[in-house]
Amino acid sequence: MSDIRDNVENKAKAADETPSALQSEASNALNSRIRVVGDRSELLDTRASDPRGTKVGPSDPNAEISVTVMVKSKASDQEINDTVGKIANGKEKPLTDAEFNSRFGADPAAMARVEKFAKDNGLTVDKADANSGQIKLKGEVNQFNNAFGVQLNDYQDGQFVNRERSGNISVPRSIENDVQGVFGLDNRKQAEPHFRKGPIISPKDGASANFLPNEVADAYNFPKESMGAGQSVGIIELGGGIDTKDNSAYYQAHGFKEPSLQIVGVDGAKNTTGSDADGEVALDAQVIGAVAPDANQQLLFAPNSDQGFVDAITRATFPEAGEKQNTAISISWGAAETNWTDQAIQNMDMAFKKAALKGISVFAASGDNGAKDNTDKFAPDFPSSDPYVTGTGGTQLDRSGKEIVWNDGGGFFGGSTGGGISEKFPVPDFQKDTKMPLSANPDGKAGRGDPDIAGDAAPSTGYIVRVGGQDQAVGGTSAVAPLYAALTLRLNGALGHPVGYLNPFLYQQGNAGGAVFKDITEGNNNGYTAGPGWDAATGWGAIDGQKFLDALRKAGK
Question: Where are the domains of the chain?
């Protein structure tokens, strides 16, 4: 075992100088980079050496906090990957809860070992779920310092005081092969919402005008034989809130059926209105509500931290009593890949694989800050860049039908669609037959290409939604994730079963000639230029919904 650890550590150290495949091997061999230190093992990532803000001092040792421990699946990574592929290719059906728990839940013995470790360190087990592999712990800061070998300190970051840590997270050797990730020790802000407000422009003022969400769906020929009946969608929100009376008034004012809405709080977060993020929440909910009004919406509010993000995805995949099973997840929050720890990316990736095993389609906005995504190098947005997520880029669609890459540059509205080549994920199997560029960074690496598809996102041709008692025009790639989540709800209703993880089928269709897509060939995102076929600004382009449904049926999906 020590030889294996040494080999993994050496590969991990050399990851920046090795091909993508070796990087993947190094990071996945034990599902986290591990270094043995005495009788403990450290889960390596960059956060401990990358504080944000000005140090105030040690965190209150007696303050109570909550931490999430993710326990590994009883199945190997290879078995998980193979089964996801079989489900995506129609060789297996998505798993029921009972089937999932039996094959891919956490080993009860591993859960017991982690719970014993927690109790031995004076921590309280608040929740333990072998299905999702999630254990929620509560305790005081000093207890967590001792249990995980870290020092928690407070840092002033602008108007916020965050809890951050020094030292890599470590666990006893007895549970090193049980623990996949530990979240909540650090509670700094993780992600940004991807929406942009614009002016109200009526159709009579020119071709560039705002749309109601159902008008965009009609422009993309979404099928109308189902409006999402019997389906449920999880909508991830890391801030903001929705005024339910305001929301009801929106549907009434525009003659829409009001959908069923369920609000779920994760990790103590609540539906709290009064911030700019309310625009994000309204955009997500009302785009889906106007396009798939017969579907149930589950708005999941979570803290804006890596813990909150991981826990929200987990909750959307594994509902609790009284909550519906989602068949789609919409994510309009994210950050450049370079702003995430390896631990967070690995655990989010596993969460998306679990969603795929259960037949859940996941969509994420590719970002609103171009190919550099608010960084000093070219970087796609995560989680849009995850191979088990369908990344959604942005276009500018006018009423004449003309459509180009959304890029407002430094103009009045600002912003442009994200996209690019991942330096965290190697080229996935579904993209190996697709012509893709290398990263635009000087070292020019190959990697997972993002986005996969695109849709209207320009604020000048944005979506009419209601926020703060009045209609507003809102764009950004945040609009595109819920738009395609809503299409999936329609598809699921029409087919009578969930379409699930879509990326392999999208690329089969694209590589076969792309008849189901409206190709976007004009424009750029300040790093990558659109052209015929797939590109790193708009992917394959916009989906023709009816053609896509016909293709799914023809393929027996």
Answer: 31-183, 192-496
Tokens of 51: 């504080």
Quick one: tokens of 79?
A: 């078995």
Instruction: State which fold the 192-496 domain adopts.
Output: Rossmann fold (3.40.50)
Query: Which ranges of 29-127 would DSSP assign to H, the alpha helix?
Result: 77-88, 97-104, 108-120
Q: Chain-centre distance of CA 506, in angstroms?
A: 18
pTM of the model: 0.92
Residues 6+ apart with CB under 8 A from 519: 532, 533, 540, 541
| Distance, CA of 71 to CA of 134 (rounded, Å) | 6
Interatomic CA distance for residues 360 and 379, integer angstroms: 27
Max CA-CA distance within the chain?
A: 72
Known catalytic residues? Answer: 280, 284, 478
pLDDT band at 98 (very low <50, low <70, confident <90, very high): very high
Q: What pLDDT, on a 0 to 100 scale, did the predictor assign at position 140?
A: 98
Q: Phi/psi of residue 65, each to 5°?
A: -130, 165
C-alpha distance from residue 287 to each of 208, 396, 532 (Å)? 19, 17, 29
According to the per-residue pLDDT averaged within each range, which of 7-21, 86-100, 444-458 is highest? Answer: 444-458
8-state DSSP, 334: E
42, β-bridge pairs? 35, 170
> What residues contact residue 215 under an 8 Å CB cut-off, 6+ apart?
none
